[in-house]
Amino acid sequence: MFTVLLIALLRALKFKPQREPDKTVLPVDFDRQGAVNTLREMVVIPTVSYSDTTKEDSAAFERFVEKLAELFPLVHEKLSRERVEPKGLLYRWQGKSSAEPTVLMAHYDVVPADEKMWTKPPFSGIIEGETLWGRGTLDTKGTLNGILQAAEQLLKAGFVPENDIYFSFAGDEETQGESTPNIVSLLESRGIRPALVVDEGGAVVENVFPGVRKRIAVVGTAEKGVTNIRLRVRSNGGHSSTPPKHTPIGILGKAAAAIEDNPFPMVMTDTVKAMFDKLGRHSNFLYRLIFANLCLFKGVLDGIAKASGGEMNALLRTTTALTTAKGSDAYNVIPTEAEMTVNSRIISGETRESVVNRLKKVVANDEVEIEYLDGSEPSVVSRTDVPEYDKVAAVIGEVFPDAIVTPYLMIACSDSRHYGRISDRVYRFSAMAMSNEERKLIHGNDERITFRGIYEAVEFYLRLIKRC
């Protein structure tokens, strides 16, 4: 036992970050006020998407597309643009070669906003100090603005990229629409296999990894799958004054408790291993001891994750969240049918089918019907041992020189998962620094972006495009 402990301590002492070479980063210049103004022009157009498209303001989506041509005239003069049904835009910037094309992604639809819950109207584009308020500023009109601002500036300077660059923009990402899948199918039909794809995802964050005080730039190299599963119990119903021993809701309650009391087993994916290896070296000694000796402390890590829940837990297992429930419409009537929904986020190695099968075993009650509704499998895992990942990491290092760059498993879903069909170099990074409070604004009330965030996005794409 003493020998094992000694080896573990020695491993922890040696578990330190590699020394980064000193580098000189030249500043980039661009029209900062112009970047703020164009984003504001985008935000005031309410491109709100709904699963029921009859609720949408189709004229707003068309106004947005027309506005892009007005705001970025050189992009629309020099680049080709195709409309891809139902709400996709595909631009092609012809480079000196078509051998290693790049795809830069964003979406211009936004989730609904309840104006009564906002401090300032969500589509007013109000500027207060150095903050721009509005739905979509963070998710992801800010990214789209960064891409097009960078392109407009480089076109003014006569820049021609080394390889073709495509801009892939969707107006139905928030509703898991068909625009991006159709764009991918179009590129695939033309034999185009991107050498690099960059979409929204991780960001520059702080205070998210135990023991690490420096800022962290998390680059999504994979994302979890998602599935919705319905649990349903049927009965003859009846009056609540003479209830049976177990009502449909009571049976569902036991099923819900069983699901929450029996989480999926911990899975250490290659993506998470790489993340722990990178960030663990920057942790304090206690956490370095754990992450340098995961074979010894796997159980400890599992226990910490289960107890804390949240992001750390979600990185390590398939999660299940009970999200909706229905029963009787009257207080004194036993329902003839009761149901609830489980939203599961699937880790690499699991499938939608395996999730359903496990839930059936955990619930272990034939009275509970368990039915798959919809979803998607975990994404392809992108490579990090290739020049394209190094390129993205290098650009992040130039824009955010104090941040540790690491691979990351995205817990949420994005349109970039569709590009796994034609590329294994798909990276998810929202090019801005966000505090924990700012991250909560995504899909939340009072969404807003600082001028600093607007500038960071433009600078990131200026530097990235020059390397493509």
From TrEMBL:
Residues 221-368 form the Peptidase M20 dimerisation domain. This is M20/M25/M40 family metallo-hydrolase. The keyword Metal-binding applies. Keywords: Hydrolase, Metal-binding, Protease, Zinc. GO terms for molecular function: metal ion binding; peptidase activity. InterPro entries: Bact_exopeptidase_dim_dom (IPR036264), Pept_M20A (IPR047177), Peptidase_M20 (IPR002933), Peptidase_M20_dimer (IPR011650). GO terms for biological process: proteolysis. PANTHER family: N-FATTY-ACYL-AMINO ACID SYNTHASE/HYDROLASE PM20D1 (PTHR45962), N-FATTY-ACYL-AMINO ACID SYNTHASE_HYDROLASE PM20D1 (PTHR45962:SF1). Belongs to the peptidase M20A family.
